[in-house]
Specification:
Helix content of chain A: 25-40%
CATH class of one domain in chain B: Mainly Beta
Shape of chain B: globular
Order of helices and strands of chain A: HHHHEHHEHHEEHEEHHEEEEHHHEHHEHH
Strand order of the largest sheet of chain A: 1-3-4-2
Low-confidence stretches of chain B: 1-25, 59-86
Number of helices of chain A: 18
Number of helices of chain B: 2
Largest sheet of chain A: 4 strands, antiparallel
Strand content of chain B: 35-45%
Largest interface: A-B, 58 and 54 residues
Oligomer: heterodimer
Distance between the termini of chain A: 34 Å
Number of strands of chain B: 11
Radius of gyration of chain B: 21 Å
């Protein structure tokens, strides 16, 4: 590990910097004792009516977009924030001047994949994602957002394309077809230069295929992108840059390093449940989620940067994607195996956990990384670091292993177990040895920990 | 002490003169600029985005990946190090420029005369860059462009940039270092204008 540290940087001139400095000063005071940090905003901005109103401003008011991006970052000096603050909603320069790309794209079917593997060309003219008409109802926005989630390409994806000709290998890396014959997250599309491509969409990481069905919003923890890329290179006799290859070998299923820095800080793919409850976005709390515009900007700029900044998505599609993500509902929770223990666990949770896991999705506001004590590379990283971590949303936590932002804890019982902290521990998902940090609850009696775990399994 | 004070006071006008003359001689680089052609066309140019991709990545990225015949690499592709489409997929550097022409004058030819990669911290030029494969947006996709711009035109152009030699600069191409891309652009034989990006970083291998 080579944590970069939370570097001091020259102040960015202008109003945004002043606002940011004032905000940081205020929150620094608030969290001086490791307490959770909560931004302005609140649930009123996430009702359907409020979201539609904010969506209209996001779409039609450039000054609103600029103000929204300026209030979007916990640490405006990390590279993620800097790029957006110096590129987004500037009018006469920057990303506003990129062409708007509304792609033609279709979710790939097993039949099409088989044909491509046999040498057939890709479909010449897949259907457009959007007809250009803005929806007028929330249901319409959500339906359009679903199309974006499954069909808007994040980039051409040669590794996934290669795996389609080897279904057994593809499945081993988490690239699976559902029973309806589609590959969720894999599309055939026409790229911004007119070339037919195989691409990857949001659904690749955030729609698992369980018992033949796509479970939208559930992290695809079997998706082993690093191993897939390495397998491609091995099979084709090509090579990845050596340092990247070494790093990809450490990712494992359900993890990838997505940050624009030199740190080795792969993160576990998160579930997307309960987003309206989240006051910050990303495990390091990079984005202040004060309102739906923050998520729409997050999606717009993600679709833009992942396509190498040569085009930008229609903003209507970014807002639609945000509404779709807000609409996601988790599968039903399991009934308590031991209702008495779960009931006792609920009381213990309220006493020992709820000060941080405080919102409706059992997530919470930011906590200083040194107070959490887990691996600091992500929190301190130059790319998206804030010096803090966001308490994970615990909704459907029983199915969300591995745990912690880096997926280092394999089993739910181990999260609260003091054995995890011991050098002799062998149960960590990243290898033998102790898994540091989040000592909360590890000092409770075994029966109390078991009760809390019983309760967690019902969330 | 008096001599030192006197010398210091004498130095003040000199400092002012130097500061003013250097300011007059070299205006700060900008993401936008105005190009003039000898034929009277005026074009506003603005950098929309710059993307810094992989080292030695210069193949034609418009190749159809699904039917990818590994065609012979472009002449400037460099040795087969495994970071090109046929030697392995890679990520191309590129720059996007928005051009808006005035109403008067005749059509003119846009030329990116030269480019360079700048260390944003020191201002040092790290290497020269070439902008090639000019494309223009036709409303649905980028298509080859002859770099001609007519009056009363809004044009969104894209160029591939020759790849930065990351292994030779700044700690092997740190993702945390900040860079600027500087382009010298002109219209026909008009005076070249400098466009310079804001400070940017390399994009990560998995951009999300």
């Amino acid at each position: 590990m080579t944590p970069a540290g939370h570097r001091a940087r020259a102040a960015r001139p202008g109003r945004a910097a002043s606002l940011a400095i004032a905000a940081l000063a205020a929150v620094s005071f608030a969290i001086a004792c490791g307490r959770a940090e909560r931004p302005a905003g609140g649930p009123d901005r996430f009702t359907d009516a409020a979201m539609l109103a904010e969506g209209a401003r996001f779409l039609d008011d450039a000054a609103f977009r600029r103000a929204a991006v300026e209030e979007s970052f916990t640490n405006p000096e990390n590279t993620y924030a800097r790029l957006r603050l110096t590129s987004y909603a500037l009018g006469t320069k920057g990303w506003d001047l990129l062409p708007e790309w509304s792609p033609r794209s279709e979710v790939l079917t097993r039949a099409a994949a088989d044909a491509i593997a046999a040498g057939a060309p890709l479909e010449a003219a897949p259907a457009p994602i959007w007809d250009g008409a803005r929806p007028t109802t929330m249901a319409g926005w959500i339906a359009l957002g679903r199309e974006v989630f499954f069909r808007y390409p994040l980039r051409a994806e040669v590794y996934v394309a290669w795996s389609l000709g080897r279904p057994d290998d593809a499945a081993r890396f988490g690239v699976r077809a559902a029973d309806d014959g589609t590959y969720p997250g894999v599309v055939a599309f026409v790229d911004p230069r007119g070339a037919r491509q195989i691409g990857m969409t949001c659904a690749m990481c955030h729609a698992d295929v369980v018992a033949g069905r796509a479970v939208v919003g559930q992290a695809r923890r079997s998706f082993d992108y690093g191993a897939l890329r390495l397998a491609y290179h091995a099979a084709t006799g090509t090579s990845a840059p050596p340092d990247l290859a070494r790093r990809m070998r450490t990712w494992g299923p359900g993890r990838a390093d997505v940050t624009e820095d030199d740190d080795e800080d792969p993160v576990a793919i998160p579930d997307l449940w309960g987003l309206r409850e989240q006051t910050f976005l990303t495990q390091a709390g990079t984005i202040v989620h004060a309102g739906p515009a923050a998520l729409a900007i997050r999606q717009e700029t993600q679709l833009l940067t992942s396509n190498h900044q040569i085009v930008r998505p229609p903003r209507a599609l970014a807002f639609a994607l945000a509404t779709f993500l807000y609409s996601l509902k988790p599968p039903p929770a399991a009934p308590a195996a031991d209702p008495v223990a779960a009931q006792r666990g609920e009381a213990l949770f309220a006493a020992h956990c709820a000060s941080c896991h405080s919102n409706g999705a059992w997530g919470g506001d930011l906590v200083r990384a040194d107070a959490v004590g887990t691996d600091r590379a992500l929190a301190d990283g130059a790319a998206r670091g804030t010096g803090r971590y966001r308490p994970a949303a615990l909704i459907r936590v029983a199915g969300a292993a591995p745990y912690f932002h880096d997926g280092s804890v394999a089993a739910l019982d181990d999260v609260l177990s003091p054995a995890r902290l011991d050098p002799s521990f062998r149960g960590g998902s990243l290898g033998p040895g102790p898994v540091r940090g989040h000592r909360y609850g590890t000092d409770l009696a075994a029966a109390e920990r078991a009760a809390i775990v019983a309760y967690l399994r019902t969330l | 002490m008096q001599r030192i004070l006197g010398a210091s006071l004498l130095a003040i006008p000199f400092t002012w003169a130097v500061a003013c003359s250097s300011s007059d001689a070299k205006p700060p680089a900008s993401q936008t600029g105005t190009l003039d052609s000898p034929g009277g066309l005026q074009v506003t140019a603005a950098l929309a985005s710059v993307h810094l991709g992989d080292e030695k990545c210069t193949h034609d990225e418009s190749a159809d990946l699904a039917t990818a015949s590994c065609a012979a690499p472009a002449a400037d592709a460099g040795p087969p190090t495994g970071t090109g489409l046929c030697g392995g997929p890679c990520d191309f550097s590129n720059v996007q420029i928005a051009l808006t022409s005035g109403k008067t004058g005749g059509p003119a030819h846009v030329t990116v005369v030269s480019g360079s990669l700048i260390d944003a911290a020191t201002g040092a030029e790290l290497q020269s860059l070439t902008a090639y494969t000019p494309l223009a947006w036709n409303g649905a996709k980028y298509e080859p462009w002859d770099e001609t711009i007519a009056p009363s035109t809004e044009l969104k152009a894209s160029y591939t940039l020759s790849p930065p030699a990351w292994s030779t600069v700044n700690d092997g191409g740190s993702y945390e270092r900040q860079y600027r891309v500087r382009l010298l652009v002109r219209l026909d034989n008009g005076a070249p204008v400098t466009l310079e990006s804001q400070a940017i970083t390399r994009d990560p291998p998995v951009a999300t």
